[in-house]
Amino acid sequence: SDLLWLGAVPVVLLWLGAVLAARFPLLGAASPQPSSQCQRKCGSVDIPYPFGIVHSPDDDDGHCAMNGFGLTCNDTGIDDGGRHRPFYDDVEVVGVSLQQGQARMLNDIFYYCYNTTTREMDSSGSSFRWLDFAGTPFRFSDITNKFTVIGCETLAYINGHDGRNGDDGDYGGKYMSGCVAMCRGDDVRSTLSNGSCSGIGCCQTAIPGGLQYYHVEFDSAFNTTEIHNVSSCSYAVLMDSSNFTFSTTYVTSPAFTNNYGGQAPFVMDWSIGNETCDVARKKPGSYACVSDNSDCFNSLNGPGYICNCSKGFDGNPYLRDPEHGCKDIDECKLPQLYHCTNGGVCRNRLGGYDCPCKFRWKGDAKAGTCIDHFPLAAKVVVGTIVGILIMVIITFLVILHKEKKKMAEFFKKNGGPTLEKATSIKIFKTEDLKSFLKKNKLIGSGSFGKVYKGLLENKLVAIKKPINGSVRENEQFANEVIIQSQVIHKNIVRLIGCCPEVEAPLLVYEFISQGSLHDILHSNNNKVLSTWMHV
Fold this sequence. Notes:
Number of helices: 9
Low-confidence stretches: 1-29, 162-172, 528-535
Number of domains: 3
Distance between the termini: 138 Å
Radius of gyration: 52 Å
Structural class: alpha+beta
């Protein structure tokens, strides 16, 4: 074949012709808001405004669709289970994306096959087929779609020239490209490779932006007459390349058309009007981005613009209705989409969310990089200190408990219960007298103990601390203390109280400031103790 030298390289021919004035009107211009009664689903496909279900593509009754975006919801018949599917004219629509400004549709796979009965080549209806979106808001996506050709002796052309009037819609000129797919050698199967679409059994080529019309044509000089027992058919279609993976069975069997049900998906970019965002905003009566918290973006494939909800909002930017327009996203309820992990605290706000690290942590919780602000070494030190403090506190409590238990035992042993019943003697607690039992308070000592000076209830007292073992125990001691406290004589120091909570009970006396009893009894003055001398 004369074109065999082309190999895996797509044949691209660009014919520059006269540029004709654009003939389509301002399709996609904003219209009044749709009625709430408009149908928003056809079969399993959601139909968001500016799209809408109408009786015909040009019908805007009820303002269900913006001009140029009307779809029909057709019953596809009993053979299809009586299901309803949306169509744009005669092209089936399988999905609409407001955010991307795209519609996903189905395109017939064109074939060119050897007929063993007639021994001639047959094609889809005729030697070429077309799709025409000229005069609509739609353009074939040059990013997503690729012209795909499958076969072993195949050359197919994609032509953007409309032979009826020489106008290619938005694309300002005539366009033609081609793809050749060949198989080397006598053994066709040995040359094919799954997943590879680089000219051996499969070929793909890109299309230019702005294209609204195309037709496909097979070159009759390339046919499967000689190899029909191995590969009888060639195929060509403009399709979504992201949805395609080549299989060698596509060349040797009808698997390609069978897998796609005879129709391959392709993507159409759409836009509102033919003005930029800056120009459209100055015309509030026709500006389509009417929802609060919506933004305008210029089309990347031809003139016009699309609308999106602002960052942090979700809904339909083409609707004023606050219920269905752009609404704030509560990111905290969607942790799988909006991350706030590793110690973060999620807080929703209008148009976004905050995710600070929790207390004493630092970093970025959205990125999952929160780390403890308290280093491990500090934790170890603090933990050790806290542990020691806990041990000290526990030890103190144990000692305190033992002391209280011991005081209770001394109290009982020293006749405390009996002393409590006496009205003439006062019972003191250890803590009441402890502060006086110091060296600087000592006023005397002897074989029976030591005497300390103190101030109790604004009265000076003498506190006697007997030597251990010098005091009788139990009831006898208690009775003697009670009797002594009842003795009131001008020459005898009065016993005020007792502390039985220690091993050797403490005795509290009146304090005499004029010497010892011996000094008073044997003094030359021989004075009687006056009451002011007894504190």
